[in-house]
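The protein record passed on for reference:
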Amino acid sequence: LGDAAMVPQVDISVRGLPEEASLPQIPPCGRSGELSPTRKLSETDGLARFRDNLQAGGISKEVSEVMCQGWAKDTVKQYQSCWKLWSEWCAAMGHDDDPRIPNLNRISEFLISKFNSGITYNRLNIFRSTFSAFMLNIDGMPVGKHDIIKRLMKAFYRQNPPRPKYTVTWDIDLVIKYR
């Protein structure tokens, strides 16, 4: 799945999508049964969103199922957690449209609210990756690669850069001399 020649990039762009357009109602990965006729905003299964996006772009159900199973468990947990926070924020702000359809202003406001609440740059970057994975493309590119989001992330980085993994290091000369 890592070879671009084997799995083509699917461009699902929002540009030109009529406002009344409906996205396919597809059961989430790993679940059986049908969804209700309209998805509620509280639906927080981002992996289902990923699969929906693939199928909306013409990828078969079988291929999208296999691709869903290619995600590492920890990645899915992090992305699901981010997607849930995004969905809850959208609901709290009164945005009742489909959270898969990207709105750069709304995404930027969400990221700024998280930044102002003290979330680290690394966690914000996970949100950016989540949006790229689970949202429809905007202007022909994943949300996280859009210039506005990239510039916003750069500002977050400059204002609050990630801390080094190790705050203390050992002097290797002392360790070697001890022998």
In short: The two ends are 48 Å apart (CA to CA). Confidence is low (pLDDT under 50) at residues 1-43. The CA atoms of residues 160 and 173 lie 33 Å apart.
